[in-house]
Every structure is written in C-alpha cells, then in structure tokens.
C-alpha cells in the first residue's frame, strides 16, 4: 500500500478516535472525591471475593487503597 493511501486512511480514523476519546473523557466521574461509584464495592470484592487465598486479591485492594488515597 502506498504511503499516501495509508495516510488517507489513517487521518480520518485518528480523528474519529480522538473525538470518541474526548467524548468519553468528558463523561468520566470526578477523581479523588469522597464518593466513588465503585470504591467500596471494589475493596469489598477484593477482600471477600472468591478464592481469598489468592494473594492477588489483597494486593489489588492495597494498590486500590494507595492510589485512591494519593488521588484524594
């Protein structure tokens, strides 16, 4: 495929992706607030979920807590 054809296909696709990303970013919930749509549920699922002996659950809960604390 010639570079001019590649560019002609890439530019509109990149523009569409940029518009879609911008629209999605504008609808995201605020970060670091007191209320989080899934904060309590994520920690509860990590700590009381299935196969609690799996260390990844606890590691995920700790990482979530640290990141959420830093963002506040």
Mean pLDDT value: 80
Count of separate DSSP helical elements: 3
Give the overall silhouette.
elongated
Intertermini distance: 50 Å
Low-pLDDT ranges: none
Number of strands: 0
Structural class designation: mainly alpha
User: Percentage of helical residues?
Assistant: over 70%
Give the oligomer, counting copies of the same chain as homo and different chains as hetero: single chain
Please indicate the percent range of residues in DSSP E strands (runs of 2 or more).
under 5%
Query: Main β-sheet, in a few words?
Result: none
**What Rg is obtained from the alpha carbons, in whole angstroms?**
20 Å
Order of helices and strands: HHH
Topology:
Elements: H1 3-26, H2 39-48, H3 55-71
Helix pairs in contact: 2-3
Overview in brief:
The protein is mainly α and 72 residues long. 71% of the residues lie in helices and 0% in strands.
Q: Describe it for me?
A:
There is one protein chain. 71% of the residues lie in helices and 0% in strands. It contains 3 helices and no strands. Helix 2 runs antiparallel to helix 3. The protein is elongated, with a radius of gyration of 20 Å. The model has no long low-confidence stretch (mean pLDDT 80).
Please give a handful of descriptors for the protein shown:
elongated; 72 residues; mainly alpha
């Amino acid at each position: 495929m010639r570079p001019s054809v590649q560019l002609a296909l890439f530019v509109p696709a990149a523009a569409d992706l940029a518009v879609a990303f911008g629209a999605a970013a504008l609808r995201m919930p605020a970060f670091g607030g007191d209320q989080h749509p899934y904060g309590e549920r994520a920690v509860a699922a990590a700590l009381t979920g299935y196969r609690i002996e799996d260390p990844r659950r606890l590691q995920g809960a700790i990482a979530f807590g640290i990141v959420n604390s830093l963002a506040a």
